[in-house]
Design brief:
The chain folds into two domains: 30 residues; 80 residues, no CATH class. Helices cover 61% and strands 7% of the residues. A two-stranded antiparallel ribbon has the order 1-2. The longest helix is centred in the first third of the chain and has 27 residues. It is globular, with a radius of gyration of 16 Å.
Amino acid sequence: MPVKHIASECIMKREVEKVSNNRHYDKYLRNKQSTAFYHSGEWISLRQVVISRYKGLDIYAYYIDNKIVYAEMVHHIIELEEDWNRRLDITNLIPLSNQNHNTISAMYLKDKRKAQGSYSS
């Protein structure tokens, strides 16, 4: 089997897993208001603006780790559950890779206020 074919199969498998994981998260872990928001046109548009604004780079990796890593998501520094009114505040949003989103989530568990202060503008 050609290497290109194997690689495309792996990519397709990962995308299917990602969709499945997102559906599970939306259905069982995220509240309905947040789920609706993350599927809204205004969020999808703003998310693209944020990613474009930072040239698709993971800002944490760039400024903290001095690495070039591409963003896969946009993170709310002050989370929706804390302040719903900041959900579309561009100064409250940073592009991150999934790995650095997990890193920041772990930091939030230890000392959320300190972590938020490090990244908010």
